Please model this.
Amino acid sequence: PLMYRVIVPCDKTAGIDGILGALGGAISLAASSTYQLHPAIVMNNSLSYGTPASDFSYTSSATGVASVTDGGLVSGVSAGDAEITVTYTVGTTTYTDYVNVEVTSS
Model:
């Protein structure tokens, strides 16, 4: 019979190297359209795993260009560029990544 052993560190931050806000770090969308972010946690062994988008926090540098909900849904508002800051906090440790957003005319 096969036997598997799973070792889970007691410290939730053990093994986390950072986060990935969006694959490629940039998205482009038309004004009045939306894009769902799917951030991932990157482990120090280079593997990544998805976690619910609602576990992260989001802010937009230019809400008149692109807004973002608590669940990571980006909405194009008007043509221009914005930066979405994506954060994930475990205890007192916060991991941050940035997503460049280009919004084109609809």
Q: What stands out?
A: The radius of gyration is 16 Å. The chain has a mean pLDDT of 82. The beta strands are 16-20, 26-30, 34-36, 40-43, 48-50, 57-60, 66-68, 73-76, 80-90, 93-104.
